[in-house]
Every structure is written in C-alpha cells, then in structure tokens.
Amino acid sequence: MNERYQLNKNLAQMLKGGVIMDVTSAAEAKIAEEAGACAVMALERVPADIRKDGGVARASDPKMIKEIQAAVSIPVMAKVRIGHFVEAQILEALEVDYIDESEVLTPADPTLHINKKNFKTPFVCGAKNLGEALRRISEGASMIRTKGEPGTGDVIEAVRHMRLMTSEINRIKSLDKNALYHAAKELMVPIELLTYVHENGSLPVVNFAAGGVATPADAAMMMQLGCDGVFVGSGIFKSGDPRKRAAAIVKAVTHYQDAVILAEISEDLGEPMVGINVYEISAKDRMSERGY
Amino acid sequence: MLTIGILALQGAFIEHSMPIERLGHLSKEIKQPKDLEGIDGIILPGGESTTISRLLDSTGLRVPIQNLLTAGLPCMGTCAGMILLAKSIEADSVPTLGMMNIEVKRNAYGRQLGSFTRMEVVEKISDAPIPLVFIRAPYVIKVAETVEVLHRVDQHIVAVKEQNLLALAFHPELTDDLTFHKYFIEMIQQN
C-alpha cells in the first residue's frame, strides 16, 4: 500500500472518539475548537440551510476556508461536490487536511465519484451500505461516514446506514471464502477489499456517523452502534446554545457507554435544532440518495 | 504481568492496547479518576491535544494524573501525548499537564500534506531501523539539562526521556514494531 494512503488512514485514526463539527466562519470554528471538536468542516451553509435555500450548493469560497485555517490549530476539512475533481484540486492547493466528497452539495458528475487516488490529500466519503463504502475506498477514500440524512436533526437514516453496514460486514465475515467472489459481484466491489472485510470483520478504514445527529444521546447511540466518531452538521450552530451543546456532544462521544454521565451532560442544553422528519422529505429531495 | 493504563478520552487509544497485549500485559482504558487505580504505567495516546486537554478538565483527570506522574508513575506520551507532557508549547495556549522540562512546537511539520514516515535506527533503543510515523506531528524545540534526547530526525528532537517520562513525536502504535512499547515496559520494570 502506498505510504501517503497509509498516512491518510492514520490521520483518520487520530480523529477517533472525537466530534467533527460543521462551521461557517472563523468565529464558529473557534467555538468548536474551544468546545473540544477534534476537527472542523468548513462550509458556507450548514445542510439545514442548503435544504431550505435550495439551488445549487458548491464548494466554499477559499477565502473563508483560509480564515478558518488561520483561526484554529485542529484539522480543517472542507466539502466538494460528488465527482468535482477540480474543486478537490483547489482544496488540495489550500492544503486542507481532509476533503469530504459530499452528497450535501449538489453532485457535479452523473456517474462518477472523484478518482481520489490522484490526490495526496485524504478523502472522506459518505456511504449507506457496505457496497458504497468499499467502492469509495477502492477509489481512494481513507475514511468513511454514514450518509444519514443531513440537515434534518433526525437520526433515523444514520442509524439505518450503520446497522445495515454492520449486518453486511457480519454476513461477509461468515461467508465461505469461495463465496466471496459472488458477494463481490453482487456488491460491485473489488475482491481484495471484500477479502479484508471477511478476514478482519471491519472496514479497512475508520467509519464515523453523520447526518442527523442533534443531541448527546444521538451521538452516544451512534457510538454504541459501533461508529468510531461523529460528525455534527446543523445540530450545533442551529441550536439555542451552540457552545454548551457542542461541549456536551464531545463528552457524550467519550463517555458513550456511561448513562450516568450522559444524563448529566444532557441536562439544560437549551433548544435543539428544530428538525425535519426524514419521511416528510420526498425521496427525490433526500441527499442520501445522491452518489453511486 | 503489568497493567498499563491508556488515557481513553479521544484519539487512537485502542491502537496502544494491541502492542501492550502482544507483549503479554494488560491494558486498561482510563476515562475517569477511579480508573487510575492499580495501574503500573500510563500511556497518553495520539489524538487532538486541544480536545484531550478539554476532557482532562471535564473528567477531573488532570490533577490526579499530575499527582501520579509527580510521584513517579512511568508515562509514555505519543504525539498529542508529547504535547500534554510538555511544560511549554510554542505560540499556543493549550493547557498541558506540564510535567516535562521541554518546549514543544505543535503541528511543527505543517498540515496533513506534511505528514511522513521514516525508517531509522534509534541508537539508544534499537540496532535495527524502525518505522517512525509522523502525523501532523510536533517536535521539541528546547530541552532542560535534566532531559535525555533519545532521537532526532533531520536535526529536530523527536524522542525524549526525563526520569519516569517518555515523550515521542511519532506513533509507534500505528506500526507492527514493538520496540518503543518494549522500552516503556522495561522503564516500568526498572522503576
């Protein structure tokens, strides 16, 4: 395996047990860092606003990303549209620490994701199931996250994606080695990656939860379901008291198995983001349906 | 058999339990002050030092760990762990444990594109070249006379020891090589 890819997988390992927060300005990035975020995701609008505003959502203004890079010492990630390799080239030139090829933005290619092997900068990609995850990894992603349904504050899709991933991994693990070729054909993934899953019972990269996490309890639930860490998008800065909620979600990810601590930190957090029930969004407007 | 505590607030803490167990010892996750009971040594893992520092306060672990290290408990810090052990951090206000007489520069090699791997002989510890993995790594820019410099990469100090404390800018837990964990276990056994 090439050394750069290994280093990129290693950076994701350093983020484990942590919370990556969406921020739209240097001031929000400072709040996130002070609350204990292990990284920030720089973007112009959080998913809830992208959903509300409609139109085409694109990569952020480099000026804003640079301001956030200057404001914090933790890793800075930023999003590009699915398949938009030039937006990714621009983020690489800015030396962002991780690129999120994200279904939150409007897809730029009708059939292809970015060939991430052409880049030195690491990529994280969303996945609803094992097939998507392994296809993204085969394209060069060094970190995976559930897609969930971004900008809703409704955790049900993230739970669905994580449970599905776990049950598919368990199924692959229990298969006869000779049956892997058929499973690889069904899932449309390379046999080498599927063999890794069969032998190790896990993805070859770190897997975070994302899409709909709004409370410390949501974050802890995703951790108990087996995620390595959590992305929180709209859930923090669309809530009544972002500072307090951000710090509480950070603690929830550390103490995800300790209900006494979870009860303490869930107290008096102010208003959560309002939220939209995922099933009130028509299938064509669901961001998790984007990607191939 | 020794019991090695691994600070498990955020970061790559599970990665340290594997080499400890491969060497035939027990590892124990430290998330609260009561977890510190009965450990023979402690590892401060890689992760984000600002995050771990925040959680040291909210968990009430900062002072009990400082007390144990002052009393001589052996400790190995890797990457973020090195930052937490340092008394001084260049141009940064992250509150550390302040235990070692070193000054550390955070993100000294720049952002992720500056991360790298080296195969080097660490003369004071091993005869064979071992892999050193640097991820958004720090290095040491100043040491007191009481600090032993164990290794430099391109003139920069990346491994130091002061009495019961060992600090590494790189990540032995991300490789299959057990040299540094073995060295730390020997430090505990000679303690």
Average the pLDDT over all residues of chain B and give the rounded result: 96
CATH architecture of chain B: 3-Layer(aba) Sandwich
N-to-C span of chain A: 25 Å
Helix content range of chain B: 10-25%
Note the overall shape of chain B: globular
Number of helices of chain A: 13
Strand residues, percent of chain B = 25-35%
Mean pLDDT of chain A: 95
- Please tally the β strands of chain B and state the result: 12
Secondary-structure class of chain B: alpha/beta
The whole-angstrom Rg of chain A is 18 Å
Estimate what percentage of residues of chain A fall within beta strands: 5-15%
- Low-confidence parts of chain B lasting 5 or more residues at pLDDT below 50? none
Low-confidence stretches of chain A: none
Tell me the overall shape of chain A.
globular
Topology:
The complex is a heterodimer of chains A (292) and B (191).
Chain A: H1 3-15, E1 19-23, H2 26-35, E2 39-42, H3 47-53, H4 62-71, E3 76-81, H5 85-93, E4 98-102, E5 123-127, H6 130-138, E6 143-146, H7 156-174, H8 180-187, H9 191-200, E7 206-208, H10 216-224, E8 230-232, H11 234-237, H12 242-254, H13 259-265
Helix pairs in contact in A: 2-4, 2-12, 7-9, 8-9, 10-12
Chain B: E1 3-7, H1 14-22, E2 26-30, E3 41-44, H2 49-58, H3 62-70, E4 75-78, H4 80-85, E5 86-89, E6 100-105, E7 116-121, E8 129-134, E9 139-143, E10 148-153, E11 156-162, E12 165-168, H5 179-189
Parallel strand pairs in B: 1-2, 1-3, 3-4, 4-12, 5-6
Antiparallel strand pairs in B: 6-9, 7-8, 10-11, 11-12
